Amino acid sequence: MSGKYNKVAYYPGCALEGTGHAYNRSTKELGKALGLELAELDNWNCCGAMEVKNIDPKLQTYLSARNLSIAQEMGFGTVMAPCNGCYHNLKKAEYDLANDADSREVTDRLSRKAGHKTYEAGKVETIHALDWIKEAIGEEGLKARVKNSLKGLKVANYYGCMYTRPRHIFPEKDKGPGTESTAKPHFMDDLLAAAGAENVDYPLKTACCGGAHTLSDSDTSTKLVLNLLTTAEACGADVIATECPTCHTGLEMHQVRAEKVFGRKTTVKILYFTQLLGMALGLSARKVGVHENFSESSAFLRARGLG
Amino acid sequence: MTSTRINQIDDIIASLDEIIAAPDATLVGAAQQLAGELLGRGETILEIWLSAHDVTPTKNKFEGFRLLALQRQGARRDTTFNACRETCRELVYHRNLVCGEPAHADTARRLRLGAMVVRHLALFIGGKLEVAGLGEFCCSSRPLRQHDAKTLAPPIP
Description:
The structure holds 2 protein chains of 2 kinds. Chain A is of the alpha/beta class. Chain A has 12 helices and 8 strands. Chain A has helices at about 20-35, 50-55, 55-75, 85-100, 100-115, 130-135, 140-145, 185-195, 220-235, 245-260, 275-280, 300-305, and strands at about 5-10, 35-40, 80, 125, 155-160, 200, 240, 270. A 4-stranded parallel beta sheet of chain A has the order 2-1-3-4, sandwiched between helices. A 4-stranded parallel beta sheet of chain A has the order 6-5-7-8, sandwiched between helices. In chain A, helix 1 links the parallel strand 1 (about 5-10) and strand 2 (about 35-40). The model of chain A has no long low-confidence stretch (mean pLDDT about 95). By secondary structure, chain B is mainly α. Chain B contains 8 helices and no strands. Chain B has helices spanning about 1-20, 25-30, 30-50, 65-75, 85-100, 105-130, 135-140, 140-150. Chains A and B meet through helix 4 and helix 9 of A and helix 5, helix 6, helix 7 and helix 8 of B.
């Protein structure tokens, strides 16, 4: 391990202060348990999410670039974003600024107007929470720290769409052994396996959950999520591990809605990978925010000696 | 017209549900045929979407599979179509697993999972026929992507 990710800038993003609070809590607690340091960006702003991006992608580039600029001013070369949406948007901003003169012009103009330094592409590396743990600790490091193995827990790893798409904004992926794959991502599988979990071969790891339409066209989202859940169960999974607050909330909400609207009950549990790793390291379920999830997993975890 | 196409997709989903519910022996007894049929249903789903957008579905193949060529054809005009790229590749993978080892102990399970993958494709495309923006969450950097797509995805001859 190079140690370069031992202390990184932390960009939680809006979701982790709201519906994804359990992910925020478990990410911080996991970092602490592993001896890793996070320094939250000062006065960070929304990454532009999808609302701004769909209407004015260059404005979204600026909003994300401002966060990268803050990381740079705080003296960091790396910012870690656990939310897939934030991670994706910071990566997209990096790509836009390196490849599109109009985006550079808009970002420069708005940065000057806002009174801060214009971010230049290539100064700050954006990583996901998965990269952070994988690179800073690694599988062997995790194995050595496990106090409460996830042995016997069958996990379907769901990465969602924004962790790998579109491929061109993730130039570090698909570089061969040791790097992440956009076609079949495996970093979460690797980490959970190191903590003792048994990963099932889940064919819908990056399939669309209809996230963007979760409120405007709920039936479409519910049907897509229901297929994700039933397929995970058919694979033998007890748990779907997530690494994105939007995916996580969507799976939880539509699991309930599928039962209410379509009469289809599924029992697979939905937990953040940071919660699972935290419990494997001996942290309590409460410490990693299991009680903050919408779905109920406490009894299930207790029965398996976790949390 | 859209409702006719959605009905076609609903019929495909119903046929997939039959495969998923079938006894192991039935699936194993016709493993290679069913694997081919699943791939064919995937192609039909993509054909429905392309036809709905006045595009003649290609007869060509990409990496040996027409399904992948159809997916690339769809993505050329609508980048949100990339949201089903891995789903199509998973379907090809499951077809290869079954055809490569039809007597494998996991064949029935592999066919059921393959059917669930096709079902996801059907739900996604059916959803896109009703809500064109479905899939835009991951691919919504559209203006730059469309420019970039010209170099990333060469046209299928």
